[in-house]
Amino acid sequence: MSNSFVGRKVCVRGWIYRRSVVGGKAFVRVRDSTGVIQVVVDKKKCGEDIVRTLKDIGLEASVKTCGELVKQPRAPGGYEIQADWFKVVGYSRDFPIKGGEGIDYLLDNRHLWIRSRKLTETMKIKHSVLRAGREYFIENGWWEVTPPILTASAVEGGATLFPVKYFDKTAYLSQSAQLYLEALIYSLEKVWSLTTSFRAEKSRTRRHLAEYWHLEAEAAWYNMEDMMRVAEELVAHIVQYVLEHNRRQLEILGRNLEILKNYVEPPYPRIRYDEAIEILQKKGVNIEWGDDLGADEERVLTMEFDKPFFITHFPKEIKSFYMKLDPENEKLALGFDLLAPEGYGEIIGGSEREDDYNKLLNRIIEQGYNPEDYKWYLDLRKYGSVPHSGFGLGIERLVMWIAGLDHIRDAIPFPRFRGRIYP
Amino acid sequence: MSNSFVGRKVCVRGWIYRRSVVGGKAFVRVRDSTGVIQVVVDKKKCGEDIVRTLKDIGLEASVKTCGELVKQPRAPGGYEIQADWFKVVGYSRDFPIKGGEGIDYLLDNRHLWIRSRKLTETMKIKHSVLRAGREYFIENGWWEVTPPILTASAVEGGATLFPVKYFDKTAYLSQSAQLYLEALIYSLEKVWSLTTSFRAEKSRTRRHLAEYWHLEAEAAWYNMEDMMRVAEELVAHIVQYVLEHNRRQLEILGRNLEILKNYVEPPYPRIRYDEAIEILQKKGVNIEWGDDLGADEERVLTMEFDKPFFITHFPKEIKSFYMKLDPENEKLALGFDLLAPEGYGEIIGGSEREDDYNKLLNRIIEQGYNPEDYKWYLDLRKYGSVPHSGFGLGIERLVMWIAGLDHIRDAIPFPRFRGRIYP
Fold first, then answer.
1. Which residues in chain B have their CB less than 8 angstroms from residue A195's CB?
2. d(Cα A246, Cα A236) in Å, to the nearest integer?
3. Does A174 touch chain B (CB under 8 A)?
4. Are residues B208 and B329 in the same domain?
5. Distance from CA of B280 to the nearest CA of A (A)
6. Which run of H or E residues covers position B1?
7. Using the beta-carbon criterion (under 8 Å), do A413 and B145 form an inter-chain contact?
8. Interface contact A414-B187, CB threshold 8 A
């Protein structure tokens, strides 16, 4: 509502968010997808019946009302509707969420909990994140493609695969569209996709989901540095877009806008894995060259930067077989991670891909996979192979960081993780 | 390439599409994601070695070249590059697709077949279809949401479900996001999602996939007619967008543009199921009131219309439990299908949803489901229920129709159907 409607008749439909009855007047706060407005229902204008009904009505009942919009400094938002008509559409008795419930109870009632302020505002931010991410690719000439979710083989090994009974065979849920995107660069050159990806993570952490949204990109003729530039421009564009379009949501969630503004200007700093290890050792972290960086190590590193930053050139043993090795030092893989600051850690993982048939075959064997499972993927190196690179961005991790959430489950309306499939 | 580049030095990277060597000159057609251009490689300028290499080189080798762009009426596109430098990046020997292969062989080599003209142009059309579809919702104030793929229960019964081993439980791949979108209208009112959906269809047909892209929408306060208007505006907007942006692709695929122009103006005609049965009976089709409309019946009906058209008010027995019954005749469900003309048939299915708790419970029991499996879905009718409607659009069916394909498998790069999981 705004000043231009003051003094005019307006109609609102929504759900009861708060209500109190004082004397012959009910003060009802009605929420809809745009916000909350106070409605005053006076028995003199709307009749005694409705005011009596409102005295006992449960929260979350759905209602329709019309009346004059007036300025009201004491009401939330500064306006109220003085109803001359008020109707209950759908009753509500004992709405199961009253406040103070434990997390498992709230997750069991997620289909109702998603009406909450926090989750609603977060979903609006996610809407912008998805929109801005796609916009970046479309406006820069990348083709959107639709890779499969049901696949015959794994990208990153079998431990975290979900098996599916697929007619008379077993298939697996995709962990990444990467291999398929690689096949598609031979006709479309620069491709991207937005799909769900699945990881059967056994541990429950604040930053893992079993099902998450994955924005992936792959480009022919791009080397690692080209691809890192795409990654940082993409993230900066998304943060900028959210700052422009979701200021209100960010404020409701208590996010510090000044900190976010720091993130809209690429380039982001780059350090090599070697340097990351040095930093960690100086900070007293017990880590050696060759160890993988876990959530704890990432958190320590993020404290050194006030922007997202890249870590590059990892030991090949801790990275996937498909990464190209550094021609200057074949112990290293040309991979990069982009870490979000403020303790959030990895949001993007990418690399230059091995484009030589024999080297790729060796890496597959070296890492203990069966080349037969990668037959078609190897083919891509037999018929006009090209240098190429790509990355994947975890949408919920990005939303978690931008919205300042402390748990990834709130970046998706119906989270999936070990033990959680309902609702 | 265009006139403004004529006489200037240009560089091109791509894959060899055709080549012939005459005397000391190689004529190489190089394709990239934008098209095909002829390159003349003269041994006087580029050396004898490269011309000898090009004599024996396999199709689909990747190359880089630079040279002067000249007008050449005999070359495809009207230009050619007179190379002064030409380099092979990735060789190719015996590219497995030479033309004339059978469909199963081509599907086994889908990772290479997707480089074909037909599939490449179709993917570009799909890119536009997805973009325009999302644009419609975003510009009309609908919120994008991310419903889950892994679910505990079925929307439309268990026969076509894919079971997934989900930690120590069994989950199912989503057939539709509808139930989750319904939960989300209580905070965001108008929501949409674009996800994969899965149906374990046992029969192989020209219009079914086991995995397909599903654009779904759901809105609070919308009745069936409101929702049909959204559906027809959406489809008209997408066709219009493709006509504006993909004329070249449509021409390459041999699509009749004049026919497509017929489809950009809503409203689309509406008939009731009763009328559809009458039309079919008059045409001599052996069908009775109460029978479902299959692909054959749909094909006959599409011949009566030169636009997409709606069929509404179906017998409740052939429609899902969640559809609201027609208050004027409770034998009928307030469901609608949108059928594409030219024999294509159903591309959208939608309905007004039952919003009364007791009626919904009865319908669940009547259709033989267990109310316990729909506990959270029933809850949505207990706490502030509202009238609402929604629909789902099958992206590949829409692409198939717009692009004029004769099989749905070509509307997706890696099709999934019974017997097909590789590559």
1. 196
2. 15
3. no
4. yes
5. 35
6. none
7. yes
8. no
CA distance A141 to A157: 32
A65 plus A177 within the same structural domain: no
CATH number at residue A28: 2.40.50.140
pLDDT tens, residue by residue, A49-93? 999 999 999 999 999 999 999 999 999 889 999 999 999 999 999
Specify the amino acid at residue B87: K
Q: What b-and-e string marks burial along B354-387, b requiring 16 or more CB atoms within 10 Å of the CB?
A: bbebeebbebbeeeebeeeebebbbbbbbbbbbb
Determine the Cα–Cα distance for residues B277 and B300; give it in Å rounded to an integer.
Answer: 11
- ∠B371-B197-A141 over CA atoms, to 5°? 150
Number of domains in chain B: 2
Closest Cα of chain B to A275: distance in Å?
A: 34
Q: What are the pLDDT digits (tens) for A269-324?
A: 999 999 999 999 999 999 999 999 999 999 999 999 999 999 999 999 999 999 99
Tokens of A41: 């229902």
Alpha-carbon span B75 to A406, nearest angstrom: 61
pTM higher than 0.95, yes or no? yes
Shared-domain flag, residues B256 and B353: yes
Is A145 within 8 Å of A188 (Cβ atoms)?
Answer: yes
Q: Which two tokens stand for residue A287?
A: 């880590």
Burial of B35 (0-12, 13-18, 19+ CB in 10 A): middle
Range of the domain at B53: 3-90
H helical segments located in B30-147:
43-46, 48-56, 103-108, 110-113, 117-139
Q: Are strands A345-352 and B270-272 parallel, antiparallel or unpaired?
A: unpaired
Q: Does A83 touch chain B (CB under 8 A)?
A: no
Closest CB to A148: pick one of B134, B184, B414: B414
**Within-domain flag for B100:** no
Asked if residue B18 belongs to a domain, the reply is: yes
Between B123, B163, B165, which is nearest A145 by CB? B123
Contact B383 A95 (CB under 8 A): yes
Phi, psi of A408 (to 5 degrees): -65, -25
> Do A43 and A187 share a domain, yes or no?
no
Place of tokens 């081993």: B165
Residue B98 forms part of a structural domain = no
Residue B422 belongs to some domain of the structure: no
